[in-house]
Design goal:
The protein is mostly helical and 67 residues long. The protein has 3 helices and no strands. The chain is 82% helix and 0% strand. Helix 2 packs antiparallel against helix 3.
């Protein structure tokens, strides 16, 4: 098994062990960072849009995650 795949599985295990709130914050942060990275390429998305996407993803994952 490749090192990248092993790293992925270890990261997945750690993320699944997180409490519900921290899991939602991690997903929201990843969403915000991903949108900011996309904004560098597209140059149409603002920081406020990325922040709102991160906040909404955090709220949705916290509300709907069945942990």
């Amino acid at each position: 098994m490749s090192n990248a795949l092993q790293l992925y599985y270890r990261l997945e295990e750690r993320v699944e062990e997180l409490p519900r709130l921290w899991y939602a914050v991690a997903i929201g942060s990843a969403s915000c960072l991903g949108m900011l990275a996309g904004s560098l390429v597209l140059k149409e998305i603002t920081v406020a849009d990325a922040a709102m996407m991160g906040v909404m993803a955090t709220i949705v994952y916290y509300a709907l995650e069945p942990r």
